[in-house]
Amino acid sequence: MADNKNLQSVLTEKRLFAPQPEFVARARLDPERLQALHAAAARDHVGFWADLGRKELSWHTPFGKALDDSKAPNYQWFGDGKLNASANCLDRHLGAKGDKIAIRFEGEPGDRKNYTYKELHAEVCRVANALKSFGVKKGDRVVIYMPMVPEAVMAMQACARIGAIHSIVFGGFSSSSLKDRIEDAGAKVLITADGGHRAGHIVELKKAADEALSQGCKTIEKVLVLKRTRHEVAFDVKRDVWWHDVVGQQKPSCDPEWVDAEHPLFLLYTSGSTGKPKGIQHSTGGYLLGAMTSCQWVFDLRDDDVFWCTADVGWITGHSYVCYGPLANGATILMYEGAPTVPDAGRFWKIAQDHAVTIFYTAPTAIRALMKLGDDWPKKYDLSKLRLLGSVGEPINPEAWMWYHTVIGKERLPIVDTWWQTETGSIMISPIPGAVPTKPGSCTKPLPGIAVEVVDEAGEILRDKDAGGYLVVTKPWPSMLRTIWGDNERYLKTYWSQFHNKYYVAGDSTHRDEDGYYWILGRIDDVLNVSGHRLGTMEIESALVSHPKVAEAAVVGRPHEVKGESVFAFVICRGERPHGAEAEKLAKELREHVGREIGALAKPDDIRFADNLPKTRSGKIMRRLLRSIAKGEEITQDVSTLENPAIVAQLAGKA
Ligand code: PRX
Q1: Is this model's pTM higher than 0.85 or not?
Q2: Half-sphere exposure of 640 (CA within 13 A, CB side)
Q3: Mean pLDDT of residues grouped by 10 in the chain (655 residues)?
Q4: Orientation of helix 45-56 relative to helix 31-43, angle to 10°
Q5: From ligand 1's centre to the CA of 421, what distance in Å?
Q6: What distance in angstroms lies between residue 392's CA and the mean position of ligand 1's atoms?
Q7: Is residue 355 within 6 Å of ligand 1 at its C-beta?
């Protein structure tokens, strides 16, 4: 099940980088303190999290029982406590940190704006009051489809403040994906913008929202529209409300709604092995605790930091490390709206310089893309304020790691390669920068209070340090997903049933080396990781098959220098197989079609037409064979069990 390329680098990579003494001297966690945390968690797992829950979060009603496992694996944390996530992120900083900058913002066109904690609090209260004026109540769902601007964070915080459940749909998703998510969540209100700036273009968010709503979404009563790009958009005066018209008029105060710790804070849809994305449901108390403590441990977050996580709020990374984790810690975050290469390849480094960024957290795909553009770009800028670098979302290849280390980190800065998932809510495996030596390509070891193991096919825990198999989590943790919205059966089946509810099955395969370091090898299910974005092969296949000319499709991932993986589709047409210019034309049409059905991020890089798919006599598509073909490998696999062995040459583009 392991990806050979990743496994190779695991087996040959022996370099070890110890934390620099200057960093250790000032670090929140040095080796001794980290050891003490691990020891406390090992002594009493639940007590460890209970102590942190009491210490770190601000409770309206303190909890009594920390973990309720009576309905396992639907675990509940801090169940009888009451709190509010927005009060934890904003109100409690108003005294000592009221005038501290909470958000530094830079738009792609270059516009800048800062918000102090006091200002952010007032804006969030106004948005919360606006939502209330639309009739939004505790437990109602609000879908957010916005660019990467401070108002997106305000919208999230405003929902949290009144106990509404937000569900963000990444702005790169199409109207059709937006519609599916709105309908699955049964959302009452949609918050969007006229558009956003991305790569020199305008992302037509309002247009896509209008399309989605015209196709269904009957539960939507109001659409709150932020004016961002100021270009002309359609406006339905009965349904749509401009942000500046309604929010500005509201009172800048709004009492937080105290909710149970288990009250859902948000839903976030993510891809799995089936065609339909699943709404991952997170809690208020446990989620916030995970986001908060991981910020302290992994990012060594301090009061004078400027923390820049480049992830969009449409992804879990943007939830935990743009919005909730850093703000709960009273930190200053930087938000940037646009692409890394606009107006030129130095943009990220210029932003880091201009805003005196100290912590920079991004995805390997961005690191690889920036690496390809050459060392001269980062060298033009003063990056001396940087003190910590992070990576997330996919395995980072040692070559990109070393570039990050030498060119950006000047061989001085720690790199935290953080493994986690939408489902885990917060970082699970990562170096602690002042305590754990790093190896390029390894996310090193689990955080305190996170019980990770490797199991074999039969679900047996492999006790040797040096082991390979399925990555599982053996004990519940506070920020774990609670269920899949509206489909608890699917929750149980996807994450728990494989090993009889004993472990949370992450869906990744891993190798653990003789030092106990983890190396993530990739997904074991039919999930692709394209530029750090999770896409289900089935989703893309269904999108292709929904085109009138397509009879059947099979999608696999192909290794890609920058994106990590790219989408490779094998397509069987209704009627004749197209050739030459006709094939090119149809491939273009299909790419656009997938863009419309899911979003541009899912468009196949390669489309190959064939008369048949390689199937076993029992009708199963041989995906392993398709993956080899997509990579352009010589086919050495046994194809004698194929229904039609001659098809292999055609699929390989040779016939
Ligand atoms: O395969 C793992 C990969 O991304 C998957 C989770 O994707 P998503 O839910 O979109 O969350 C991404 C951001 C947390 C995982 O199952 N992944 C994530 N981080 C890493 C990683 N693979 C290797 N190394 C990582 N640091």
Answers
A1: yes
A2: 1
A3: 60 88 97 98 98 98 98 97 98 97 98 98 98 98 98 98 98 96 98 97 98 97 98 97 97 98 98 85 98 98 98 98 98 97 97 98 95 95 98 93 97 98 98 97 97 96 94 98 97 96 96 96 89 91 94 93 94 93 96 96 95 83 90 81 80 78
A4: 120
A5: 5
A6: 7
A7: no
